Amino acid sequence: MSPRKRTEPPSSRTKLKNVALFTDQDQVEVKSAVTPTLPLEKIIISQQQPRCYFDPDKLEQLTISVKEHGILEPLLVRPLKDKNYELVAGERRFRAATAASLKEVPVIIKELNDKQALQLALIENLQRDDLNPVEETEGVLRLLTLHLDDRQESPRQLLYQMKNAIEKNKAAGSEVRDNVIPNCDSESEKTIQSVFESLGQNWYSFTCNRLPLLNLPEDILEALRQGKIAYTKAKAITTVKDETARTELLENAIANSWSLSQIRELITELKPAKQQEQLKTRLATTYKQVNKSKQLWQDPKKRKKLASLLSQLEKLIESESSSEAPESGLSDRELGQLLGVSSIVIRDCRVKKKQPPAALKKKLLEWEIQGKLWVRKSIRNA
């Protein structure tokens, strides 16, 4: 059987079909759907923008993409009285466009009051995957403040009150779900629950896990805001109570990109250092008490015992030089304790050949690596 020949439709029918698909009205609609653009110089960044930190590497990647493809998602702006426009959402794209030297960007223009603009900016940021936990926590609190209007209670205060009420009911044996507000007659609590439901979050979980973030030391909070360190690592570093040691640990953890396990290991090493300081304080206090004690110096038996204790102390001091660096060498931990630095820093110098800080570098000139141990050069050459 021969293949069936395909016949072309009459030209009049084709013309009618084309007319039906693409009328002048359709063309007008397409033109009206074109996204408007604005010169970058006409767009002003709001002082109320909830996002403070933008990762430089990610911003650079976006800038490269913008140079090649332009801005693919329009910025949300609102008109101002001076014929300029305020940026509501899309600051990262705005910064990338500026860095890419674009003259204008696509925008969506909406008439918004101050409250609406801030709410949209907060929600847009809270929906982002790369928002750090501190900015997210602060953003939720600002959104709650916005919805609570001018009520006297602060969102943090209200959330802790609600949490305490839930836990009190649980302690009394009541069966209470965490996502239920304790006081159904409170308009403030209803508002809080409504906001968290709109965000797909649980107010009780937020209060227990996220609000405590804002109680962290300011230097750790700032590092979290800037995305320099993960929350789990920051939380571990917070357990170090000595401010100087904590600051040094935070700086080293960021500079060396230490893992959580490395940070925990170092925190464990810091405990003997704390005990050492306590022992020094105890020794100084005891020395003062010995000097002041009349009975100790007048009693022959006590003087004899004191002499014996002093002899033991002198022997300990005399043996220090021989025990500091045995011929067998020192491990990273032992050398770190001897030099008063982290064993992780010592290990990085040995394994990864990282350059140590200037002060440590001078001390390490006396040492050389032998396998997994550190041997003092004077001993090896003897």
Describe this structure in words.
The chain is 60% helix and 8% strand. The protein has 382 residues and is of the alpha/beta class. It folds into four domains: 90 residues, Conserved hypothetical protein from pyrococcus furiosus pfu- 392566-001, ParB domain (Alpha-Beta Complex), CATH 3.90.1530; 83 residues, no CATH class; 79 residues, no CATH class; 59 residues, no CATH class. It has a five-stranded mixed sheet, sandwiched between helices. Strand 3 and strand 4 form a beta hairpin. Helix 3 packs across helix 4 and helix 7 packs across helix 9. It starts with 10 loop residues before the first helix and ends with a helix.
Short description:
The protein folds into four domains: 37-126, Conserved hypothetical protein from pyrococcus furiosus pfu- 392566-001, ParB domain, CATH 3.90.1530.30; 133-215, no CATH class; 240-318, no CATH class; 324-382, no CATH class. The protein contains 20 helices and seven strands. It has helices at 11-21, 24-32, 56-69, 91-99, 114-126, 133-147, 155-171, 187-199, 203-209, 218-225, 231-238, 243-255, 260-292, 294-298, 300-318, 320-324, 332-339, 343-351, 358-364, 377-381, and strands at 37-39, 43-45, 75-79, 85-89, 104-109, 367-370, 373-376.
Kindly report the CATH topology of the largest domain. Conserved hypothetical protein from pyrococcus furiosus pfu- 392566-001, ParB domain
Task: Tell me the number of structural domains.
Answer: 4
| H/I helix tally | 20
In what range is the share of β-strand residues? 5-15%
Radius of gyration: 34 Å
- Share of residues in helices: 55-70%
SSE string, helices as H and strands as E: HHEEHEEHEHHHHHHHHHHHHHHHEEH
Helix and strand composition category: alpha/beta
Order of strands, widest sheet: 1-5-3-4-2
Number of strands: 7
Average predicted local confidence, pLDDT: 80
What's the CATH first level of the largest domain? Alpha Beta
Task: Estimate the global geometry from the Cα principal axes.
Answer: flat
